[in-house]
Design a protein that fits this description.
Number of helices: 6
Strand order of the largest sheet: 1-2
Structural class: mainly alpha
Strand content: 5-15%
Order of helices and strands: HHHEEHHH
Number of strands: 2
Largest sheet: 2 strands, antiparallel
Helix content: 40-55%
Distance between the termini: 43 Å
Length: 145
């Protein structure tokens, strides 16, 4: 499994919105400048993640985007599934029921199933708030005398 640029940038977009959650609606231009991602590419990403349960949108001169929920309610897994679709390492793990004629005797299926479970559990355990807390901790421990 390889996370695409779209998935990585969507995560950065959401982290940026979480960092600025108290600033009201954030224009895409501001996110673009802070994250050094082209505004045009962010427009493509925002079209994917702009769901009512994910983002709030405001049009006009004071327009922009903000999180629909608090940062602790967004998991990395949720964000990546929006942009990437499945996070499974192989396609057959996503089939329910598994239609592969070899699935009953496949010696590798349990490996891929277990790996998929580990990936999803881990990514679903990390929230935007966890990332913000980790980032803040890193900055607090990085001082110079």
């Amino acid at each position: 499994m390889k996370i695409s640029t779209k998935g990585r940038y969507a995560l950065r977009l959401m982290i940026d919105l979480a960092e600025h959650k108290d600033d009201g609606y954030i224009p895409l231009k501001d996110i673009s400048e802070r994250q050094e991602i082209s505004k045009k590419y962010l427009e493509q990403i925002i079209a994917i993640v702009n769901k009512p349960d994910f983002l709030r949108t405001n049009r006009g001169s004071q327009g922009g985007y903000k999180l629909a929920k608090s940062p602790d309610k967004y998991t990395v897994g949720d964000i990546l599934r929006l942009t990437e679709g499945s996070l499974s390492p192989v396609d057959c793990v996503d089939q329910h029921p598994n239609e592969c004629p070899r699935s009953a005797d496949c010696p590798t299926l349990p490996i891929w199933s277990h790996l998929s479970k580990i990936i999803n559990e881990y990514l679903d355990s990390v929230t935007l708030q966890d990332i913000l807390d980790q980032q803040q901790s890193r900055y607090m421990n990085n001082y110079v005398i």
